[in-house]
Amino acid sequence: MARYRTTVRSPRSPDDVFDYMAAFEHAAEWDPGVAEAERLTDGPVGLDTRFRVVSRFLGRRIPLEYRVTAFGPGRRVVLTAETSSLRSVDEITVAPDGEGSAMTYDADLSLHGAFAVASPLLGLAFNRIGDKARDGLRRQLGH
Questions:
Q1: pTM (predicted TM-score)
Q2: CATH topology of domain 2-140
Q3: What is the reported pLDDT for 86?
């Protein structure tokens, strides 16, 4: 399993940051590891909202379908994607921070089956990818 956790501070309001982050179709705007992202369901983001995300990882394009599995309006969203070879759980929390907000992104990625042997290398690659996404979030959220 690989885990990446970061907190990004923003001058934007907590509601604004949460709305932007919960709309996971924006992932391609801040994460250079995401080639494409789109919302698959209509209406406001909430439990069971689904997103299609195509990630670039180790030279491959990996399509994933994320589903909102936990939702606390304005403060917390958990998105989960699972295939036969991997499981990704991304938790986003937003809290007031002075005049702006602090957004924490906590991602867990685990490999299954034949891919599980690559788990030790996964952590190193995941940290590099996470750092690039963090930098994109800082730019996007006005840090």
A1: 0.89
A2: Alpha-D-Glucose-1,6-Bisphosphate; Chain A, domain 4 (3.30.530)
A3: 87
